[in-house]
Amino acid sequence: MAGHLLKNCAAVIVDEGNGPTVRRNVDLLTDGPAIRAIGENLSAAPLPAGTTVQDADGWFVYPGLVNTHHHFFQCFVRNRADLDWTKLSVIEWLDRIYPIFSQLTEDCFYHSSVTAMAELIKHGCTTAFDHQYNFPRHAGKRLVDRQFEAADLLGMRFHAGRGGNTLPKSEGSTIPDAMLETTDEFIADCARLIDAYHDAGPFSMRQVVVAPCQPVNCYRETFVESVALARDRGVFLHTHVGEGESPVIAARHGKRTVDYLEELGFAGPDAFYAHCWELTHDELRTMAASGTGVSHCPEPVYLVGAEVTDIPAMAAFGLRVGIGCDGAASNDNSNLMHCLHSAYMLQCLVASTRKHPVPAPADFLGYGTTGGASLLGRADIGRLAPGMAADLFAIDTRRTDYVGTRHDPLSLLPRVGIGMATDMTMINGRIVWQDGAFPGLDEAKLAADAEAALATVQF
C-alpha cells in the first residue's frame, strides 16, 4: 500500500501519548497503514516510492473517530411517524418495533450495515463497533459475516459485537420468540465468529466482541458463558446497562445491574457497557474500580426522554468513557461527529444540577477518539502520531462556517458542531471518502440497493 503526504495542513491534532496538542502548518506523511511522520516541510526529504502528495492548505486534520455503540440494522426504521417515541409508551413502542425487526432478511442486515457505515465514514468515523443482537430465525446465522463483508466494501475498521437474546417473553423479556436463541446457539456462533474473523494484531481491521444484548433479555447462564468464552479467547465483552432496567434486575436477582454483572465477572478492563444513565454514584465508583468502561450515547436522550447521563461524575471517578451513536430506533442518524456536539451541549444544559463540573469541550473530542480506542482495547488507533494507524479525517476550514472558530481546533467539533461531511476520511492509510465520493464505489447504486432491500419489510 502506497503512502500519502498531506502538505501544509493548517492544523493537525497530534497526541504522542501525553494528551492532544495542535500543530500548525505542518505536513503529515503516511506509509502503508501507519503514520510515518508529522512535521514541517517533509516533502524536502525523499518520499517513499508511490507516495501521493496532496495540498492540505486550510485543512484541520483530526484522529479518526471511534464509534463504541450502534445497531446498524435499525437504519431501516428511521424517520417514521408511526414509531414516534413521543406518541408511544416504551412498552407500546417495543411491541410495535420488535415484530418489524423480526422480519429482516440477511440482505437487510448487509445493506443496513453499508448504509450506517457509509454515513459514519462521511462524518469522520474510522472505527465502528456494532451491537448486532437481532437474529431472526429465518435470516440464518451469517448476519455478522455479512457485516464484515460490508466493512470490507467500504474500508471500515470494524469491531463486531455478536449480540443475542435468550430469555422468552413469557419469562419477562421484551423479545418475540422469532428473535430468540438458546445460550448454546449464541455461544457457539460467538466462537465461530472469533475463529473466522478476530484479529488481535496491530492495525487489525476485524475484531469480535461477545455482547449478549442486555441482562433483562437473557438468562443468567448466557452472561456466565459469555464471560468464560471471552476470557478464554481474549476478546472483549459488551452489553446494555443502566437504561432503566436496574429495578427489574433487582427484583429478579436481588441486586441492581452493576452489582449483578460484577458478581458474574462481566466487568473489568475488557468490558464496557452502553448508556448507564440511571446509575448511582456508588455504582459508577464500582465500575471505575474494576476498570469497566462506558459507551455514552447522547442523542437517544432527545427521543427517549431519559435523564442526561452524568458524564462529569464519570470523569471525576476516572471511568473510561467513549461515545456511541446508538441505533436508529433512538437516534435517526449515524453521525458520530454530531454526537460529540450533542454530548457536550447536553452536559451544559444540566450543569447547574450536577455536583461535578462539565469537562472541557476538548475532553469530548477525547471521548470520541482515545476514549473509544480504550474501550475497544486498541493502542494503535485514536491518536495521530508516528507509528499509529493512519486513521484520520480532514475538514477544509476555508469556509464561512468556520470564521471566528479556527483559533481552537480542539473545541471545534464539540462546541461549534460540524454540519457537513468531511473533505476526506482515511482508514488504515487508505482514502475511503474524499470530495463527496467513495473512491471506486457508486453511492447512488449503494443507496438504491439498500432501498430495494428495505422495500421487502412490511411495516
Output the CATH topology of the largest domain.
Answer: TIM Barrel
Q: Radius of gyration from the CA trace?
A: 21 Å
Helix run count: 14
Assigned CATH class of the largest domain = Alpha Beta
The count of DSSP E runs of length 2 or more, i.e. the number of strands, is 16
| Main sheet properties | 8 strands, mixed
Return the string of H and E elements: EEEEEEHHEHEHEHEHHEHEHHEHHEHEEH
The best one-word shape is globular
Identify the CATH homologous superfamily of the largest domain: Metal-dependent hydrolases
Task: Name the poorly predicted regions.
Answer: none
In round numbers, the mean pLDDT is 95
What is the CATH architecture descriptor of the largest domain?
Alpha-Beta Barrel
Provide the helix percentage: 25-40%
Strand content: 15-25%
Question: End-to-end span in angstroms?
Answer: 45 Å
How many domains? The number is: 2
Structural class category:
alpha/beta
What topology emerges from the helices and strands here?
Blueprint: E1 4-14, E2 21-31, E3 34-39, E4 52-55, E5 59-63, E6 65-67, H1 90-101, H2 106-122, E7 125-132, H3 143-154, E8 157-162, H4 183-197, E9 206-210, H5 220-233, E10 236-241, H6 246-253, H7 257-264, E11 271-275, H8 281-290, E12 293-296, H9 300-304, H10 311-317, E13 321-323, H11 336-349, H12 361-375, E14 392-396, H13 409-416, E15 424-427, E16 430-434, H14 443-454
Parallel strand pairs: 1-4, 1-5, 6-7, 7-8, 8-9, 9-10, 10-11, 11-12, 12-13
Antiparallel strand pairs: 1-2, 2-3, 5-14, 14-15, 15-16
